[in-house]
Each structure stands twice: as structure tokens, then as C-alpha cells.
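Re: that chain you flagged

S.,

Sorry for the slow reply, it's been a week of failed gels. I finally had a moment to sit down with the sequence you sent. For the record, here it is as I used it:
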Amino acid sequence: MKSLIFDAGPVISLAMNNLLWVLEPLKKKFNGKFYLTEAVRKELVDRPLETKKFKFEAIQVEKLIENGVLDIIDNNFIREKTPGLLNTANEIFKAYNNYIKIVHYAEMSVIATSTTLSADAIVIDEKTTRFLIENPKMIVEILKKTLHTPISINENNLKEFNNTTRNINIIRSIELVTMAYEHGLLDNYVTKLPDARKNLLESVLWGVKLNGCAVSKEEIEQLVRLETK
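Prediction finished late last night. Pasting the C-alpha cells below so you have them in one place:
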């Protein structure tokens, strides 16, 4: 069966823009499963429920889980595979003679699940994890600028990680909201104001960017041109 594995970031981006509801119709159009790992579920539900600021967003995610829009996946393989992926990824780049921790457990559980299910894609907004899979040399440049020092690479660990993730496809919340727009799911927000459709699309794209999706201003402008021409 077709499947997408969600990291916490894209779900948070949708929640902060009052767009969590688009997941149900998008899932129907996808005709597959939308999965959260147990580690991601804890980030989205358990921890925010202990706060006051994000409790309502956590309740909305829990409701999607209870309604079967988001399925929880957890098994021995994922629990055994994730720590190894985490250690490998966090022992690739070194500065000042110390390895730099660049990823977290929940993100690696998403990757472990994707390899288990041969998922169609993972849904992740976090720039570092995406670059680690798609273009690790970019991480070196970012770390150099941030830390103002040369970065050394453990080539064996990088090769091992790349071999594990080479068949993984990545989409972001920016693609999710663009698909929602393309399928007419956002048409209820079209106003009688000038350039209503353009402004609508621009607003949701910037909304997810400002809530954590790693997307450039140029990418947004290109999407708006393509979708509203």
C-alpha cells in the first residue's frame, strides 16, 4: 500500500496555519496511508499536552489519530534501526575535534520507518535532515559559516547513511499546501478582493515557511507564478 511517513514539523506547520483539516481529503486523493512514528506522536501529542501554549494543537492532532487520518506505526525493527541511524548521522561531521549532533531521534525514526515500508516519501520540513539525504555538502557549508571553522567528514558514516537513504523521496508542508490548492481544497478562502487566488496561495505558502518549513523566498515566488499563471 502507498504510504507517507510524517515528521512532526509539517504537521505543526499545518496546525499553526489552521490547515490540519486538509490532511483528510489529501489522504483520500493519495489513496494510501499517512503514518506517524511513536516518537513523532510523542512530539506532537504527549509533550504539547503538558503545556498550555500548544495543547489545542495537540488535541487536534490526537483527533486525527483517533479518526484514522493519521496512523501510528511502531515495531521492533523501527525501534532497533532508529538508534543506529541516529548515531551514524550524528557522527558524520566534526568540528573542534568533536562530532556535531545534527539530527534527533524522531526524525531518524521517520527514516527507519520509510526504509521498513518502502514508503513513497517522507514528509519533513527540517532543512538539515533533508540536506543530509539530498545534498550533504550543503551541511558542510552551513556548519563552516555557523561555526567559523573547518569541518571534517567521516566518509564511512556518510556513505553508510547515504546507502540507507538513497531511495527516500522527500516532500515538505509547502508541497502539501500546494497540492491542497491545486485540488481546490482551499477554494472556500477565495475572496472578492483583487488577485484573490494569488494572494491566497501566497499567504498559505508564507504561512508554512514562517512556521518552520525550509523553503526559500524564490521557491515561493516560483510556485505562485506556476500555479496562478
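What I noticed first: The longest strand covers residues 33-37.

Talk soon,
D.
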